[in-house]
Amino acid sequence: MKVSAQQSATKPAQAKPAKATPPAADLEYEQQLFASGARTVAGIDEVGRGSMAGPVTVGVAILTPDATLEVGGLIDSKALSPARRESMVPEVRQWCAVAVGHVEPVDIDRLGMTLSLRLAAQRALAELARRGYRADAALLDGKHDWFTPPQEDLFSALVPDPAQAHYNALLAQAWEGAGGAGEPAQMPVTMVIKGDYKCASIAAASVVAKVERDELMVQLDTRYPGYGWAKNKGYGSAAHREAISVQGPARSIDSHGRFRRPPSRLRLLRHSAVRVRDVPENRASEACESLTCHR
Fold it and tell me: Can you give the pTM of this predicted structure?
């Protein structure tokens, strides 16, 4: 049987489709603020709000109108591999002014999460002010503006709020010696849903904050082994929850539980280890016997 030349010819190798360029943040939102008159723009993002252990951390990156995007693949830190995040930090620091603020669990317990996030951001902004950088406007990831303080009403003026008083004291400490009048940062805030994917300044803040907080959790893991913090970074993985149920919460000056007894049941508020709602109540009761319980 004759085989036609067409049949016997080797089929040319098909070219592999080019890999799609991974998405990256850009400067569209920043440029809009510059066009409206802002001289400097701060991108703000938090890390650790949903964790069971460790600090809540906020990164702030400040850009000026002449900024061009010089960090390839810059995007939300969670979309990057740990190795790429770490290698990107020097690039980000060379590209923009960036700082990170933390609030430790002992203060999170007293402040609540919103004030804790606000304080962490102010601490980062105070550090930037000491280096000569202040922002005129801010881009904040998400849809809830936790940075802008609410307007004081008559009730709040008449009834002292212990959490607010504690925040005010810590805020004054953060801005002490920050230059100028030492006034905390105040600026208009633009909310951007998925801002860490869209805004280069927010993504830069996200990357630096994530890497710094992860490093802190690795250090804590060496001091208080057994909870897997080097791997889970304090978040509520199954292994983390199991470790808490087996060995109880970690306890030390910076890593033990603070106990309160709310109306419903005993609850261990967030600290460098856990919250009691993640611990079986019999374990929480045992732990409470060895520590002072606050009512």
Answer: 0.79
